[in-house]
Each structure stands twice: as structure tokens, then as C-alpha cells.
Amino acid sequence: MPEKIFFQSSLPRAGSTIFQNLMAQNPDFYTTPTSGVLELLYAARMNYTNSPEFKAQDAKEMEAGWKGFCNKGMYGFYDGITDKRFVLDKCRGWGVYYNFLDFFYPNPKIVCLLRDPVDIFCSLEKKFRANQHKDSGIVNHTNMQGTTTEKRIDIWAGSPPVGLALERLWQIKKEGINKKMLFIRYEDLCENPNREMRRVYEYFELPFYQHDFDNIEQVTKEDDEVYGIYGDHTIKPKLSVVRSNAQQILGKDVCTWINNKYSWVEQL
Fold first, then answer.
1. Quick check: 87 and 33 in contact, CB under 8 A?
2. 20 to 30 A Cα–Cα from 94, which one of 141, 173, 178, 226?
3. What is the 3-state secondary structure (H, E, C) of 118-142?
4. Is 0.90 topped by the overall pTM?
5. Pairing outcome for strands 86-90 and 4-8
6. In the chain, which residues have pLDDT < 70?
7. 217 vs 12, 33, 178, 212, 235, CA distance in Å?
């Protein structure tokens, strides 16, 4: 059974996949693709809350049993998968569900990769433009929906996964949960990976492992057909600085609007 489970809860298009595969270079770590473990626990919470069988019994006893179920269930899931010492579970929901996680797994360590929101939206727009052979699901010319870059950004900003992830991040900041998490900016990881990875190991309270940033093997596997045209979980083998071309793709005014709307991200 793993000794400890760590968590990654990052923004979309912010390097979460490459981070998982970097951590997988450490032989002590089992790292997941996008994980459904939180979904299992979330669904079980609904049953625990609403089932009359639990309501009819002693509340303190049931709470203790529920706590044990969540803790042992999560460990049991990974005990069935790996014999490595540590697990790094990747799911965008862990951050906003910090207090639920803390209920059965005290003082969880959660890493969140951030990226300039301008470049996140730019990445989505580039994916949209590169996949015109498929229906994106957001353009309707009759209703004039999603027909311009600006309209598409409005849609992405108000819906999953990007809008939801940013909304959750705002709530994390509002509740002060951000003070218990570790934030890594994707731009910083690319420019100074050794420094940023040392921060990760200090946060995890583990000895530093020297990673190879020029030879990153992809060990996490996901079927991107499930996620449509925006699914892209294939990494490059070398970590390198990606220069922003958001102004050329989105336009200066749109970039300014995004920067103003999400200026609080820089405060994390």
C-alpha cells in the first residue's frame, strides 16, 4: 500500500500532464492521468448524506465509519494499482474540495499549476482553428453563438473546463485554501525547472530527486477522443520555454480584457 498520496489540481492547458510525467521519473512515484477517484468519493458522499440507513443510526458512529471508508477506499484503490511508495493523483477538483479531502486525509498536499489566462484562452482558440474538420459544439451561426474569437472566449470563460477551473480558483483564494497549496507557474517551470521542482519536494517534505528535463518519457495515457478537440494529453519529450503569441491570435484588446478580468491570478 502507498505510504502517502499527494494531489495535483491545476488549471487546464497549464502543464499538468507534463508535470505528472516529470514526477513519474522519480521511481518512488506512481502518477495518474486525469483521475476519477474524487468522483468515486463524491458520489459516495451523496449516498452517505441521503441514505436513510445512515440517517437512522448514531451520527457520530456513522461519521467515523464514513471517514474510514473514504480514507481506506482511496488507499485501497491505489493499493490495487501500484506498489510504489507515493501516489500523485491529478484531478482539477481537489483544490476546491480541500476541506472534504482534509476531513478524511488531514493536511493534504495539493500542487496547482497556473498559467497566464491569456495563453490558456489562446491555446483553446488555436485548437478551435486547427480542428475545423470537426464540430466544436460551440458555434451556431443561426443564433450567432461562438462565431467570433471574442464570443468563443466568453463561452469558455463561463463554462467547464476553463471557466469552472478559474471560478474554483477564485473560491480557493476567497476561502484562504490557497495558503495551504503550492502554486507553480507553468512559465516558471519551463524557465527554471530545477528551482520549481525543488519547491515541490520541499512542499512534499521529501528528498529532492534530480529530474531530466530533456528526456521526459510519457507514462500517463489518456484517450483524447473522450475530451474532444480540446483534449491534448500528449507531451513533448523536452521541457522548453513557450513564447506567447496571444496578441497575434486573440488581438491586443482581447488580451487586455482577459488580463483585467483575471488579474487576481497573479496574487496566488
1. no
2. 226
3. HHHHHHHHHHHHHCCCCCCCCCECC
4. yes
5. parallel
6. 222-233
7. 21, 14, 31, 10, 9
